[in-house]
Design a protein that fits this description.
This protein has 340 residues and is α+β, with helices and mostly antiparallel strands. It is 29% helix and 21% strand. It binds 2,5-anhydro-1,6-di-O-phosphono-D-mannitol (AHM) and magnesium ion. The site of magnesium ion has 4 residues, from strand 2. Pathway: Carbohydrate biosynthesis.
């Protein structure tokens, strides 16, 4: 019988091969453990009393993005903060749900890494029992800095040491890259451990499937209007094939589908979010997903620049996103060049 490979074994073997050090390995193990705890809370649903908005007496609590927080957003954030504070491998943490980065409490030792996360992405789907997920990104803390400030996190996506997400769907899966391919682990709920189920995910180059929120069409810029217009015109149009559309509205679930069977995911610039630079966050969503997608042979772009080369200017910066099957992302980029 083939031996199953746990996340722990995978990481130890990567450490032996010199592709990860002990601190980064421990960090990923701790994040994975926190994801298991979040998975249990998500799985309890209404029975756990975790559905609905955070806040008291009818007043919804808001995050830095001005969005109403769900109870599970707050709980997942606390689980990740608590799990990562004491391990000694971090110099600081930053979360989509917090205004500024969080220092490591003085009572604990500090390490060389920075952890960024979106604790519960797709939270509009929590109350309707549709997949949500956690997204994370790991950076190195600049040399000589022991207590990281916001500015120390502002590194381009190419600097990521590791990135991943955990999807809380029919099964809980952790998808991870440490820069040596993108690999999927499925949570064995009876044993309580993540087991390697796909080594080296590969996104097909070509696709006939796109993911976008079509209700925003009238707000898009010219390149996106032309691009999607041509996708919709099917076999008779310039693209010469019929396209299918999917939109879960949980980035983790949409990206997981694309890593599994191909496709293009886009959240373009539109006139509603133009002042903010886009809808999705560079540091917590776009960069980690882009590294995972590139490591699986796909591509990721803002439409005008390779995503991983964007120099961040703010912790909560937003960007337009196009990622997935390489030739389709290249097509979207071409429309941006031709119709700008
Ligand atoms: P969130 O981090 O507040 O959950 O928002 C991000 C989510 C993504 O998961 C998803 O792709 C997108 O927002 C859906 O947006 P929309 O509701 O506009 O379709
Ligand atoms: Mg999010």
């Amino acid at each position: 019988m083939p031996q199953s490979i746990s996340l722990t074994r995978y990481l130890i073997e990567e450490q032996r091969a010199g592709r990860i050090n002990a601190d980064a390995r421990l960090l990923i193990e701790v994040v994975a453990r926190a994801c298991k705890t979040i998975s249990i809370a998500v799985g309890k649903g209404a029975l756990g009393g975790v559905l609905g908005d955070a806040g008291t007496a009818g007043e919804a609590s808001m995050n830095i993005q001005g969005e109403a927080q769900k109870k599970l957003d707050v709980l997942s954030n606390e689980i990740l903060l608590e799990a990562n504070a004491w391990g000694g491998h971090l110099a600081g943490l930053a979360s989509e749900e917090m205004d500024t980065s969080q220092p490591i409490p003085d009572v604990y030792p500090r390490g060389n890494y920075l952890l960024l996360f979106d604790p519960l992405d797709g939270s509009s789907n929590i109350d309707v029992n549709i997949s949500v997920g956690t997204i994370f990104s790991v950076l190195r803390c600049p040399e000589g800095v022991t207590q990281a400030q916001d500015e120390h996190f502002l590194q381009p996506g190419t600097a990521q040491v590791a990135a991943g997400y955990c999807t809380y769907g029919p099964s809980t899966m952790l998808v991870l890259t440490i820069g040596n391919g993108t690999h999927a682990f499925t949570l064995d709920r009876e044993v309580g451990s993540f087991v390697l189920t796909t080594r080296g995910m590969r996104i097909p180059d070509e696709t006939k499937e796109f993911a976008v929120n079509m209700s925003n069409q009238r707000f898009w810029e010219a390149p996106m209007q032309h691009y999607v217009g041509d996708l919709l015109s099917g076999k008779e149009g310039p693209r010469g094939k019929d396209f299918n559309m999917r939109w879960v509205a949980s980035m983790v679930a949409d990206v997981h589908r694309i890593l599994t069977r191909g496709g293009i995911f886009s959240y373009p610039l539109d006139s509603k979010c133009a002042a903010k630079g886009g809808k999705l966050r560079l540091m917590y969503e776009a960069n980690p997903m882009s590294l995972l997608v590139e490591q699986a042979g796909g591509a990721a772009s803002t439409g005008r620049q390779r995503m991983l080369e964007v120099q961040p200017t703010g912790l909560h910066q937003r960007v337009p996103v196009f990622l997935g099957s390489k030739s389709e992302v290249e097509a979207a980029v071409r429309y941006h060049r031709e119709h700008d």
